[in-house]
Amino acid sequence: MVQFSTSEFRLTPHIDNLEVANSFAVTNAWAVPENVSVKSSVAHLAAYEGPSVNGKTSNDSNENKIKLLLYFTCLHNKMVVLANIVNGNFRYIMGATQAGAAGNLPVEKDLEVLVTAAEPDPACAQVAKKANGILACVSNSVASRTRAGIVLSAVCSQFSRGVFAIFGFYDKKSVNTITSFCGTLHVSFITPSFPTDGTHPFVIQMRPDLKGALLSLIEYYQWTKFAYLYDSDRGLSTLQAVLDSAAEKKWQVTAINVGNINNERKDETYRSLFQDLEVKKERRVILDCERDKVNDIVDQVITIGKHVKGYHYIIANLGFTDGDLSKIQFGGANVSGFQIVDYDDPLVSKFIQRWSTLEEKEYPGAHTSTIKYTSALTYDAVQVMTEAFRNLRKQRIEISRRGNAGDCLANPAVPWGHGVEIERALKQVQVEGLTGNIKFDQNGKRINFTINVMELKSTGPRKIGYWSEVDKMVVNPLDGPLGNESSGLENKTIIVTTILESPYVMMKKNHEMLEGNDRYEGYCVDLATEIAKHCGFKYKLTIVGDGKYGARDADTKIWNGMVGELVYGKADIAIAPLTITLVREEVIDFSKPFMSLGISIMIKKPQKSKPGVFSFLDPLAYEIWMCIVFAYIGVSVVLFLVSRFSPYEWHTEEFEDGRETQTNESTNEFGIFNSLWFSLGAFMQQGCDISPRSLSGRIVGGVWWFFTLIIISSYTANLAAFLTVERMVSPIESAEDLSKQTEIAYGTLDSGSTKEFFRRSKIAVFDKMWTYMKSAEPSVFVRTTAEGVARVRKSKGKYAYLLESTMNEYIEQRKPCDTMKVGGNLDSKGYGIATPKGSSLRTPVNLAVLKLSEQGVLDKLKNKWWYDKGECGAKDSGSKMTLNDAMRSKARLSITGSTGENGRVMTPEFPKAVHAVPYVSPGMGMNVSVTDFS
């Protein structure tokens, strides 16, 4: 095989300039020396950057740079490539012409290519075949007022040179000109462009008609309401077929032309278009566009977040794998389409293998494992022409045009006499190409073809079935959209993304000496081990790069954190304290919750209040004490009055005055002071020298005794608790307390579900808190939980941190034991294991979580990392006093005047009373401190 590089070409004029009204043309050519004869050669046309006008490179926006890489099947002698730039578009026309006096047989004719047709992808770029001949390249810069005039001039130029057939592309504006010209002059036109409706003689259409496959796919998905975005340059035949079916089946179709969108404002236009569709609840969209426009639309779909679960897109062209779908692959939206090039076909594999062996330096674009479907159609078109002329040679049909080149502008037009034979030969070709079985009907349209139906899975594009004219839609139930992806988890190494957050994932103290997963420890590390054990896969723990859980940027709509790594395919699963939320559920899948929790408030633990001089009053509220005082006074007054009015309370006293006995007047012992003394003695559970004699007085006294019995019993019970528990005065007790004040600042994690909860909440209290947080200066948001905890500890009680209750409880058990949780949870939610949308890991992981929950493994893991490894004692033990402190408190109360059983203070028997207290073990929840009082 001989390869021609750019150094082997020499500049030489090749053909005349095209004469087009109101246009200019500059012609340059490279030609291989005519004495070079090559067999089985592959000719290489290197990149040509141009064109130039008056010796200067044109910067006109309508003149783009050409970079062509052409490989063609050449029968004999020479191959010519003519490149025209027309309004920034490329056009290709191939003509088979006679090679001088080399004979009359068509196999001795040369193939010429005229670049005059607009096509998004230069389809001639990857065609390779055995060739004999000379390669030449000609570049022309043409500007014209009418595209049809340029096409007509270019085609006439080729026809006048004696072409046998023309290969090229057309668009909506040029199709009628080309088909009319070819039909009139009997020159066959082979094209990979979109199929046309009706009958066009001498037009061979390489591209299969997509209408039937598209309608079958719509019916398969049972769409009844959708939007149809189409490019008018591709024609309207497919749209018309969809609208006809819609009228028959009562579909609701919104048709939108995106072919004439201004390139300078296309991004803004696409965003506005999809936002309007969202208002109309249109989440099913058909994109009847070519690759470049599809890529532009997909970019804007991602930008505005319309690539998530709930959206479904059908790409209505034959190159599903040609576009860049990697960005939308992990978003969650369903994406379907069609593929004409079957990479499982041995012929395609052989072509790709040969293409990949070429030197990329000499053949830009080599070493790729794919081929654009337009390139494949071009390759097949050359193969069809080769086979047709080979068949004519075998039949020894004379089709010479020597001396009869013809004039396309003659009046009347004179058709070529042998054009019918060539058309018949082309239509009779039946070969296997890169696009499958190639066969034409009498109208020159493809028949008996097969189109693969594709869906975008989390693992990439995947064939779910096929469509053919005979079988119609055939879907493999295992690979279809309703089927499950094969799990195949055994012996797979799964990338597990997580975040450094105690106690879920922590670095071991000696992690520098360890490798891989052994460097980490924590709740989620143990959970990952259990999940992998149940699912049967190997895994690798990776720490999320930006240290965030995952939130979507309001401007760019791009996800960050662990959610972003799942969405954009950087990880297979996330095992971390990742909260299950609605916005996250739209782009990733969650397992059943492995831990339930809620948002809670963390504050700095206030200083413990020591018993004061009047601490003995604490067991009862001050209101009760006031009521007792008033009751005491009231009972004393009533007793005084009853004693005054009752005759039984009056008695006479006799005493001896010398030898005579004196009798005084009647007296009453229950004066006002004695009444007060009697009531006080009864209240203190002590005796008194006097007692009521009358029935009414005794009733009043009995009621008072019963009252004091209840009060003293209640006081004694509460006093025992106050002796063993130190009270802490918290400045806030709930979210309402936070929202009503501004002295204590409060905030959340800057990127997480807690912040999202307040941002979206419609509850008045939470909305008021969010308004404060987002406008607070300095910012109350923190980047990490560790930063938030540190801020609480350093704020001296002036900052409250809002976080998940599980983390709050864990930090409360860590030294220096100076934080605490106040109030109840603000909401109820759960942590879940996350996987990308449609991942095969979802089902086995979900079952594993349920099994671990039923076996109690999840509870054991929580106890292990929260309380068994706690540093502040058992839960709630921080508020308990030691026995020594309790006795000191009692002594302090006694010193201030409180009474014991006998009303004595610090009697000699007091140390004995201490030793008489029953033994209390640490296991009873009390921290015992032994002190010897003897």
TrEMBL record:
The record marks I732 as: Crucial to convey clamshell closure to channel opening. It is found in: Postsynaptic cell membrane. L-glutamate binds at P577, T579, R584, S753, T754, E804. Residues 503-568 form the Ionotropic glutamate receptor L-glutamate and glycine-binding domain. The record marks R552, R759, K851 as: Interaction with the cone snail toxin Con-ikot-ikot. It comes from Hirundo rustica rustica. InterPro entries: ANF_lig-bd_rcpt (IPR001828), Glu/Gly-bd (IPR019594), Iono_Glu_rcpt_met (IPR001508), Ionotropic_Glu_rcpt (IPR015683), Iontro_rcpt_C (IPR001320), Peripla_BP_I (IPR028082). GO terms for biological process: cell surface receptor signaling pathway. CDD domains: PBP2_iGluR_AMPA (cd13715). Keywords: Cell membrane, Disulfide bond, Glycoprotein, Ion channel, Ion transport, Ligand-gated ion channel, Lipoprotein, Membrane, Palmitate, Phosphoprotein, Postsynaptic cell membrane, Receptor, Signal, Synapse, Transmembrane, Transmembrane helix, Transport. Disulfide bonds join C156-C408, C817-C872. It is a multi-pass membrane protein. The chain crosses the membrane at residues 620-642, 703-725. GO terms for cellular component: postsynaptic membrane. This is Glutamate receptor. PANTHER family: IONOTROPIC GLUTAMATE RECEPTOR.
